[in-house]
Amino acid sequence: MKETKKKLEELGEEVVKDINSGKNPDIDIPVRSLSNVIYDEKTQMLTLGDKISKRIFFNVAHAKPFMQTLLVAAFCKELVGEGVHTSLRDLYYALKRTLPNSNENTFDEQSESDPLIVDLEVTLDILREQLHLGADVRGRAVGNVIIKDRGDTIDWSKLGSGGWAIPSNVEDVEIKNVDADYIIVIEKNAAFERLHEDRFWQKNKCVLITTQGQAARGVRRTIQRLSDEFNLPVYVFADSDPYGWYIYSVIKYGSISLAHVSDRLGTPKAKYLGLTMTDIERFDLKNFTIKAKDVDIKRAQEMLKYDWFKHPKWKNELEIMLEKKYKAELEALSGKGLKFVTETYLPDKIKNKDFLP
Amino acid sequence: MKETKKKLEELGEEVVKDINSGKNPDIDIPVRSLSNVIYDEKTQMLTLGDKISKRIFFNVAHAKPFMQTLLVAAFCKELVGEGVHTSLRDLYYALKRTLPNSNENTFDEQSESDPLIVDLEVTLDILREQLHLGADVRGRAVGNVIIKDRGDTIDWSKLGSGGWAIPSNVEDVEIKNVDADYIIVIEKNAAFERLHEDRFWQKNKCVLITTQGQAARGVRRTIQRLSDEFNLPVYVFADSDPYGWYIYSVIKYGSISLAHVSDRLGTPKAKYLGLTMTDIERFDLKNFTIKAKDVDIKRAQEMLKYDWFKHPKWKNELEIMLEKKYKAELEALSGKGLKFVTETYLPDKIKNKDFLP
């Protein structure tokens, strides 16, 4: 918290210094567009390159975003100072006003304030959560894990059918103890509930986390922290389609739009457990496939070009999809019986280390 | 569980009896369309009227749905017998197959199996949850509440920042103890998190529940059970727009599409706390309003016709919206400062019983 406050203060001090010495104030902001996103083979993460853009006060095109950036930074300093957390939407409303003696609003749309928060993350090299701004909440967890959060000691194995609701901000959560051999991350809540009901986590000594779709930041950070702090392998279980595979790649490598925080949200050692196109053949699931939509085809074609999907095994998956033009959901495995996933599919895959990289 | 199994068995036995006595088997299914949905002034709930349609085996139009209905019922009997829960999508995949010596599939789309489950609910007068079929999961809760779920004793006041993740099925959850004077149900998670961070539930001795949008069945049932079993008033806090008001009305009266289960999901004593159109005037929030979309206008016009929105206070709200053509979100209150909601707005409204019916 102190570090965040200091960085915000330094940002303001730089601007004041420029003004006092008669200079045109500016802020250096790393470029976040695809042109500056690099796949780093060594760290296995998406990162930002070194392109910088300057936001300059005395410049017709920059003056408004410059002012808006400082408004957002000042508001975040207040949040951090008061120990209050809020949402992006709240920030937008809290800062929206008409400037005195003008018709000019500070912000007209939330789409103006949202990117400035990411700018601050990149510029100051801190997480949005450290600025006390929450993101979406989705995601639940269960397993032999004991955490401490806001003074409460919480045992993930004793939360009934619901599991622990992963909050948007897990920066202040302490992970006290983990008794597990690996983590399974599941795209869909229904599959998570099935595994939880069969007490898969207990019988197989693992942690189960559902992302409920694309993983929210809190979930990505939770996966990374559990895996890093307790040296646990991570296996991702998602639909056999470009959307499911992209969910996996975001957990592992980071995302294009948040490449600047991959080191704090990504888990490069994650492996892909399934569902795969080759599973469809192997387990005779063709009757349970769905015709791929145009958007799936387009997405798969894009993914073939990504450096982080160049591995021959992934190339093969993507090419099968493009050839067969079908996809399959986790639920397709229910065609083999409701206990097939917990009693056969998952244990076999894990025992044989049958993963995609 | 026994009762559910018995009802499913009786359904099958009736059909077998018809066959053995040479009759054309049929199933009586209450009609679920709007034409058969009635607002019952006495119970203050949406219920089904007494229109019945027959699904007949020897009938070209009915033969397939008849067979599908029995497949779904047989599958549910298996779920209940084995003590296994699953999702609507899993059921669809588990039952999807090609009939031997034909090109005919049992089901081609999930849209064929989903309504049959509701048919079973209505026909057998049981909840989908009792058929062991889960619905969407969304929703979190916090407060001085102790429950027992799958053998675990869970204290909602000791779950850190995340709160309790409300599962899709709360039929087997036992509510052991509640120390609270009322329940606040909040449409948006961000507002819930803000209140939770300020420990509003502790300072004001209440239970906080977020629906995260339209309330899932598990959340509706949780609200009803908490309120009924512990005689607690329920106050709903939603956006000032037709979508937010409809969320309220579904919690209170039930929904049109699930009118047959209003008595088990609805909470007629719920009151609407805010946000209202009149709040926008009173708290000078006009700068924070959003232009109403066509869909808002259309929705408000429909709602004016609903018997359960006929109260003059609601008529007034809807008419203001249609006249001003704007709406406001909960976050608009952040324009008055981040602590305005917890320190002024909510305490004042509750103290003065300033609710809409």
Which keywords apply here?
6-stranded mixed β-sheet, 357 residues, Dna Topoisomerase Vi A Subunit, Chain: A, domain 2, 41% helix, alpha/beta, Arc Repressor Mutant, subunit A, 3-stranded antiparallel β-sheet, homodimer, 2 domains
Give the count of structural domains of chain A: 2
Low-confidence stretches of chain A: none
H/E order of the elements of chain A? HEEEEHEHHEEEEEEEHHEHEHHEHEHHEH
* CATH-derived topology of the largest domain in chain A: Dna Topoisomerase Vi A Subunit, Chain: A, domain 2
Mean pLDDT of chain A: 94
> Helical residue percent of chain A?
40-55%
Q: Categorize the overall geometry of chain A.
A: globular
- Number of separate helices of chain A: 13
The CATH class label of the largest domain in chain A is Alpha Beta
- What percent strand of chain A? 15-25%
Name the largest protein-protein interface in this structure: A-B, 54 and 54 residues
Strand tally of chain A is: 17
Distance between the termini of chain A: 37 Å
Query: What's the CATH architecture of the largest domain in chain A?
Result: 3-Layer(aba) Sandwich
Q: Helix- and strand-based class of chain A?
A: alpha/beta
Strand order of the largest sheet of chain A: 10-7-13-12-14-15
